C-alpha cells in the first residue's frame, strides 16, 4: 500500500472475534519477522500501527458486516486511497466534456468489491471524524467520490504530511465548502454578466481588433476577485498580479478597476488620460513609444488602502512571473534599518496567471518554482493560476507536452494542485478561498488549474476551425457560463429569467454610454503625443560622489572589526587585514573599493540588495561580503555593522538561474526605487540566458511603459585564455540595444572609477533621471596594481567618463596617433607603455563609459593634439563583436579628416581562442599592432 495519502481512520475497527485475534497474532509476527507476514498486512501495520490499541471492535451500528474477510477490508482501504489520490482522473472538470475520463482506478470491480462488501464495513474505517449521514462503507465511498470526482479535483498526495492532513481534513470535513447567500449569488451573476458583456461589446463595436478575449475562462475574474477580497480582509498592503495577454483587458477592467471609458478610449485611439478616476484610485504609467493595449498594466488602490497591481508584460508569456515575485518581496521588506531587511510575508501576495501551454513549455516557470522557498527569494507563497483553455495557439495538448496535465511540473516541488471546472463559478469561489487559506497557513505556493476553453481563435481575427475543427464544433454550441449560471439561479428561485435578461441589457447599455462619452470627448479634445521626459533626454547631472578620508578610514576599520568570538579562515583573514594598509599604499583593489562604496551608500540611506551565483564571495574570490567562521561555519556580514548606516544590506547567492533571477531583481528594483539592486553574472556571457529580460524589460520598459529602473548589472568580461564561454560579456548586444538614454553601459579600467560609478548610480535612485547601469566588470583587473585606487581618488575624485593615460601626451605637438580603448585592454596597453618613454607620438584614452558615448569629452582631448593623423580603436574582442561596430559611427564624426583604424582580433564566429597559448599569441599581436 502506498503511504502517499494519510488516512484519518483505522482499519482495526472492522475486526472482532477470531478475525481480530488473527490480526493480533500477525502483528506479533510482524514485530519479530515482518518478511513472514503478507505484504498487505505489513502495509496496514506500517500505516496504522498496532491493533491492540484500537478501542472499537466491531462494525458501525447498523452494518451487516460478518467478521472474517481481511482482503475485503484491505481492498476497501485501497479503493478509498485511490479515490483520494486518483479521483482527479475521473473528475468533471472539463467544460466541453471532450476529454475521456479514467474511472478504472476507482471502480469497485478493480478491487474485487461489491456494494454489499462495502455496506458491511464501518464508516470509521475511512474517516477519523465520520461525516454526518455516513454510516457504512458504501456511503463513505460514495461520499469520497462526490468530493473527489466533482467539479473540483485535487492532487495533494505528493505534499508534506502536515499539509496533506490539513488539505484532506478541509475537503472531507466540508470545511472548504462555500455557501453563498442569495445576494452573493446575484453579485456573482452580475460579475459574470459584466465580464461577458465587456467582450461582446468590444467584439461588436471594434470589429477586427485584437483583444485576446477571456471568453471560455470568464471565471478567471471571479477567481481573482475572491483572492483580492481575501487578501483585503487580511489587511494586506499589496496584491500583485502577473499574466500574459489572454483575458488581460478584462482583468484590467474588472479586477484592477480601469474604467470602461479608459479602456474603450484605448480601442478608439483617444488618449485615456481624459478619463482618469477623479479620486486618484488608479495609477498607470506610459512611455513615449507606447505598447499594445493588452501589454499594459495599472495599479488600483482600494478604499482600504490595499493596492492591486497588474504588471506590464510583453508577449513573452511567463517571463513576468519572476518580476512579480521580486516586486512582491520588495513590498514585504522593511529596508530602513541596518542589517538584513526584515520581511513580513503577510504584507503582500503574488498571484501568477499562466497559460496552459506556456506553463509546461517555458523553462522560466521551473526557475520560479525552484527559488520559491530559498532565503533570498521567498515571498511566503505565491498563488499560481493556469488560465487553461486546453490549447496552445493552434497546438493540441498532445503536441505541446509529455505529461497528462500541464500542471505536473509543480508536483515535483511539493505544490498542491487543484483543478476546477471554469463553468462552475461557485466551485471557483470555493477554490479561491481554500488556496488563499493554504498560502497563509503554510507560506508556500499553491496551483489552481482553471480549466475552460477558448471561444475564438488565438485572437479574434483567427479562424480556429482550420486547425481544430472538432473542438470548435463543441465550442460553438456550448453556452456561456453567464447563461448557465443565470439559468441555474432562475431554477433556484434566486432571480427570474426576466431579471437575468434585464441585467444583461442594463450592463450593455452602461458600456454603450461609456463609449458614447469617449467619442464625444475625443471629438472635442483630440489627440496628443507623449514626449520623452527632459530628465531622460539629458545625461546624468553632476553629483557629488567623493567621501572624506576620515569617513573612509572609519568605515574601513568597521569592516575589519570582527567579534572576538568570530574567527575567519586564516588565509582570508590575512588578505582582508591588508586592507588597512591599502589605504596608505594606494593599493585599494576592486573588491575593496566596491565594499567601501557599498558602505558609504548605506550611510547615505540607500538599501542595497545584491544577488548572483557566487555574489557573497565573488566568482573570483575577490569580494567576501559574508565571512564564515572556520570553527563552526557561522556567518558574519561586516556591512551590517557600519557606524552611521541608515539602511539594510542583503547579498544572496542565487540558484543557478539567470533569466528568473535577473527578472526578480528587476521587479524588486521597480517596487523599491531607493534600493541599489545589483545582479552579477558568474561570467558575463551567462547573461545570455536572461536575454529576454534585457530586450523586453530592462532596456525598453521606460520607453514602452514609463517604468523607471535603476538596476545594476555586473557582467565579468575579458579575453584571458579561459576559452570562449568565459571570455566575453557580449558587450555588443547591450550597445546595440542602447538608445534614447535608456541605460548606461560602462567598462571601467580602475577600481576608483568603479567606486564613483556605483555611488553616482545610488545618488540617482528615486529620481526621474534614473536608468539601469550595465557594468562590464573585470576578472584579472580585480587585483591588478595598475587598476588599483588610491584613498585620494575615493575622497576627492568623481566618475570619469574618459581617462587619459598618465605619462603620455606630455608633448602635444609630437602626438600623431590617439588610441581609444575600453576596459581591460587599456591596462594591457598601460603595462606596455609604462612611463611613456619611447611612445611620444602616441596617446591613449580610456573610454570608461561607452553609452552614452562621451563624444564631446573625446573631441576636447583630440583638440589638444594639433598633429594627430590617426585615431585607432583598440579592443581585444573579435572585429564583429565588442564595441567596434558601435563606436565607428561616433569616430567618423570625431575624425575631421583623420584616418580611423581598427586594431583587434579579426572577425570570428566564437568569442575567443580556446586555449591559453593561442590566446597569448593573439593578445600580444593586438598590443604590438596598437603600439607599433
How would you describe the overall organization of this protein?
This protein is of the alpha/beta class. The chain has five domains: 19-54, no CATH class; 70-150, no CATH class; 182-244 and 319-333 and 347-504, Thiamin diphosphate (ThDP)-binding fold, Pyr/PP domains (Rossmann fold, 3-Layer(aba) Sandwich); 549-796, Rossmann fold (3-Layer(aba) Sandwich), CATH 3.40.50; 802-931, Rossmann fold, CATH 3.40.50.11610. Helices cover 40% and strands 12% of the residues. The chain has 33 helices and 25 strands. The strands form five sheets. A nine-stranded mixed β-sheet has the order 1-10-11-9-8-2-5-4-3. A hairpin with a 5-residue loop joins strand 4 (298-301) and strand 5 (307-310). The protein is globular, with a radius of gyration of 34 Å. It starts with 16 loop residues before the first helix and ends with a helix. Residues 1-8 and 54-68 have low confidence and may be disordered. It catalyses: N(6)-[(R)-lipoyl]-L-lysyl-[protein] + 2-oxoglutarate + H(+) = N(6)-[(R)-S(8)-succinyldihydrolipoyl]-L-lysyl-[protein] + CO2. Its cofactor is thiamine diphosphate.
Amino acid at each position: 500500500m502506498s503511504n502517499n495519502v494519510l488516512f484519518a481512520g483505522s482499519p482495526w475497527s472492522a475486526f472482532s472475534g477470531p478475525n481480530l485475534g488473527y490480526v493480533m497474532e500477525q502483528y506479533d509476527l510482524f514485530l519479530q519477522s515482518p518478511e513472514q507476514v503478507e505484504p498487505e498486512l505489513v502495509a496496514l501495520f506500517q500505516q496504522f500501527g498496532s491493533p491492540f490499541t484500537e478501542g472499537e471492535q466491531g462494525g458501525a451500528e447498523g452494518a451487516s458486516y460478518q467478521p472474517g474477510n481481511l482482503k475485503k477490508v484491505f481492498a476497501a482501504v485501497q479503493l478509498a486511497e485511490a479515490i483520494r489520490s486518483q479521483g482527479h482522473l475521473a473528475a468533471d472538470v472539463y467544460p466541453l466534456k471532450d476529454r475521456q475520463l479514467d474511472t478504472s482506478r476507482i471502480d469497485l470491480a478493480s478491487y474485487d468489491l461489491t456494494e454489499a462488501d462495502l455496506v458491511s464495513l464501518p464508516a470509521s474505517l475511512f474517516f477519523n471524524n465520520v461525516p454526518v449521514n455516513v454510516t457504512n462503507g458504501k456511503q463513505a465511498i460514495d461520499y469520497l467520490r462526490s468530493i473527489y470526482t466533482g467539479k473540483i479535483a485535487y492532487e495533494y498526495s505528493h505534499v508534506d504530511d502536515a499539509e496533506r492532513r490539513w488539505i484532506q481534513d478541509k475537503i472531507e470535513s466540508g470545511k472548504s465548502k462555500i455557501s453563498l447567500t442569495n445576494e452573493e449569488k446575484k453579485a456573482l451573476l452580475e460579475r459574470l454578466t459584466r465580464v461577458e458583456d465587456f467582450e461582446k461589446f468590444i467584439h461588436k463595436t471594434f470589429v477586427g481588433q485584437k483583444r485576446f478575449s477571456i471568453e471560455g475562462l470568464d471565471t478567471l475574474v471571479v477567481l481573482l476577485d475572491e483572492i483580492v477580497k481575501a487578501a483585503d480582509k487580511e489587511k494586506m498592503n499589496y496584491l500583485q498580479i502577473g499574466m500574459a495577454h489572454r483575458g488581460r483587458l478584462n482583468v484590467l477592467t474588472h479586477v484592477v478597476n480601469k474604467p470602461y471609458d479608459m479602456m474603450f478610449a484605448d480601442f478608439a485611439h483617444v488618449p485615456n488620460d481624459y478619463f482618469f478616476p477623479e479620486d486618484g484610485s488608479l495609477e498607470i504609467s506610459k512611455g513615449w513609444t507606447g505598447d499594445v493595449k493588452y501589454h499594459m498594466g495599472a495599479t488600483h488602490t482600494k478604499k482600504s488602502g490595499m493596492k492591486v497591481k497588474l504588471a506590464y508584460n510583453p508577449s513573452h508569456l511567463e517571463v513576468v512571473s519572476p518580476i512579480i515575485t521580486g516586486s512582491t518581496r520588495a513590498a514585504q521588506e522593511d529596508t530602513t534599518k541596518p542589517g538584513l531587511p526584515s520581511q513580513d510575508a503577510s504584507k503582500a501576495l503574488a498571484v501568477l496567471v499562466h497559460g496552459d501551454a506556456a506553463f509546461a513549455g517555458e523553462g522560466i516557470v521551473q526557475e520560479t518554482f525552484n527559488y520559491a522557498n530559498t532565503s533570498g527569494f521567498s515571498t511566503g507563497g505565491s498563488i499560481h493560476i493556469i488560465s487553461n483553455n486546453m490549447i496552445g495557439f493552434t497546438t493540441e495538448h498532445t503536441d505541446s507536452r509529455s505529461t497528462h496535465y500541464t500542471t505536473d511540473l509543480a508536483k515535483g516541488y511539493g505544490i498542491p494542485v487543484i483543478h476546477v471546472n471554469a463553468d462552475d463559478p461557485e466551485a471557483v469561489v470555493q477554490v479561491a478561498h481554500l488556496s488563499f487559506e493554504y498560502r497563509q497557513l503554510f507560506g508556500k505556493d499553491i496551483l489552481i488549474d482553471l480549466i475552460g476553453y477558448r471561444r475564438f481563435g488565438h485572437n479574434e481575427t483567427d479562424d480556429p476551425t482550420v486547425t481544430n475543427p472538432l473542438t470548435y464544433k463543441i465550442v460553438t454550441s456550448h453556452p456561456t457560463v453567464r447563461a448557465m449560471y443565470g439559468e441555474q439561479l432562475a431554477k433556484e428561485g434566486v432571480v427570474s429569467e426576466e431579471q437575468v435578461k434585464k441585467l444583461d441589457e442594463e450592463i450593455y447599455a452602461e458600456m454603450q454610454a461609456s463609449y458614447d462619452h469617449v467619442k464625444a470627448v475625443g471629438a472635442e479634445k483630440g489627440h496628443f503625443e507623449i514626449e520623452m521626459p527632459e530628465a531622460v533626454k539629458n545625461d546624468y547631472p553632476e553629483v557629488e560622489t567623493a567621501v572624506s578620508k576620515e569617513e573612509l578610514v572609519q568605515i574601513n576599520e568597521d569592516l575589519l572589526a570582527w567579534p572576538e568570538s568570530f574567527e575567519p579562515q586564516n588565509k582570508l583573514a590575512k588578505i582582508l587585514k591588508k586592507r588597512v594598509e591599502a589605504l596608505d599604499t594606494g593599493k585599494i583593489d576592486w573588491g575593496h573599493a566596491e565594499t567601501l562604496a557599498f558602505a558609504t551608500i548605506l550611510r547615505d540611506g540607500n538599501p542595497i540588495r545584491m544577488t548572483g551565483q557566487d555574489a557573497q564571495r565573488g566568482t573570483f574570490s575577490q569580494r567576501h561580503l559574508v565571512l564564515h567562521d572556520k570553527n563552526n561555519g557561522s556567518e558574519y556580514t561586516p556591512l551590517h555593522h557600519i557606524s552611521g548606516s541608515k539602511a539594510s544590506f542583503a547579498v544572496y547567492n542565487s540558484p543557478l538561474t539567470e533569466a528568473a533571477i535577473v527578472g526578480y531583481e528587476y521587479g524588486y528594483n521597480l517596487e523599491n526605487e531607493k534600493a541599489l539592486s545589483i545582479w552579477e553574472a558568474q561570467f558575463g556571457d551567462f547573461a545570455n540566458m536572461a536575454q529576454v529580460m534585457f530586450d523586453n524589460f530592462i532596456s525598453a520598459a521606460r520607453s514602452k511603459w514609463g517604468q523607471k529602473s535603476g538596476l545594476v548589472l555586473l557582467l565579468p568580461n575579458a579575453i584571458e585564455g579561459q576559452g570562449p564561454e568565459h571570455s566575453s560579456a557580449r558587450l555588443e548586444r547591450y550597445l546595440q540595444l542602447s538608445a534614447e538614454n535608456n541605460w548606461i553601459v560602462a567598462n571601467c579600467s580602475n577600481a576608483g572609477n568603479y567606486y564613483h560609478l556605483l555611488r553616482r548610480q545610488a545618488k540617482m535612485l528615486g529620481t526621474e533621471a534614473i536608468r539601469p547601469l550595465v557594468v562590464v566588470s573585470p576578472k584579472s583587473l580585480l587585483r591588478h596594481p595598475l587598476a588599483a585606487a588610491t584613498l585620494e581618488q575615493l575622497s576627492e575624485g568623481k566618475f570619469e567618463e574618459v581617462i587619459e593615460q598618465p605619462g603620455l601626451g606630455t608633448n602635444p605637438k609630437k602626438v600623431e596617433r590617439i588610441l581609444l580603448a575600453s576596459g581591460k585592454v587599456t591596462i594591457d596597453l598601460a603595462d606596455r607603455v609604462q612611463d611613456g618613454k619611447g611612445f611620444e607620438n602616441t596617446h591613449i584614452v580610456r573610454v570608461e563609459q561607452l553609452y552614452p558615448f562621451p563624444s564631446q569629452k573625446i573631441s576636447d582631448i583630440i583638440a589638444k593634439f594639433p598633429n594627430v593623423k590617426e585615431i585607432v580603436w583598440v579592443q581585444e574582442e573579435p572585429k564583429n563583436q565588442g564595441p567596434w561596430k558601435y563606436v565607428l559611427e561616433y569616430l567618423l564624426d570625431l575624425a575631421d579628416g583623420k584616418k580611423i583604424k581598427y586594431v583587434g582580433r579579426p572577425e570570428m564566429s566564437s568569442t575567443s581562442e580556446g586555449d591559453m597559448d593561442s590566446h597569448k599569441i593573439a593578445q600580444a599581436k593586438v598590443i604590438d599592432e596598437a603600439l607599433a
